[in-house]
Write a structure and sequence with these properties.
Number of helices: 2
Low-confidence stretches: none
Largest sheet: 4 strands, mixed
Number of strands: 8
Mean pLDDT: 93
Radius of gyration: 17 Å
């Protein structure tokens, strides 16, 4: 997932934010952008347009979380729903497994810290969604069919 670039929406009126500056940070995000842009049930969408404050467990300070996407859709039931979407590899949505060796490798420590920070962001996003009548979802390669 090391690819990044700019995306130019085919339907800029659907984009909430500056449609001339839409950045994707992975091919997974690009795939989701194309889906949002081309899906007739998507009323509006944005990429990293929402800011959610959260407290980091690493330094106990407040930081800003920019979720990957905001999407407003018409559902099959005829309802309008809003979602905050985060795109992550499935592996990063679960706590890392501690290695069986007696010494804890640096990689495990880094993965543990990343997971704790992500978890703090996601808890803040869930609270934000509860306060703003929307839903938080994490999409992985499974949901994106990758």
């Amino acid at each position: 997932m090391a690819y990044s670039g700019r995306y130019k929406p085919d339907h800029p009126k659907k984009y909430k934010g500056d449609y001339s500056n839409v950045i994707f940070r992975s091919l997974w995000e690009l795939k989701f952008m194309k889906w949002c842009d081309g899906n007739k049930n998507v009323i509006e969408w944005g990429s990293e347009e929402i800011v959610i404050p959260y407290r980091s467990p690493v330094d106990n300070k407040m930081h800003r979380y920019f979720p990957d996407f905001y999407v407003k859709v018409n559902t099959k039931e005829g309802l309008v729903r809003k979602y905050i979407i985060e795109i992550k590899p499935l592996k990063q949505t679960k706590p890392p497994k501690k290695p069986k060796r007696t010494r804890v490798p640096e990689r495990f420590l880094a993965e543990s810290i990343t997971y704790q920070v992500n978890e703090a962001k996601w808890k803040a996003a869930i609270k934000f969604c509860n306060d703003n009548r929307c839903h938080f979802r994490i999409l992985t390669e499974k949901e994106l069919n990758i």
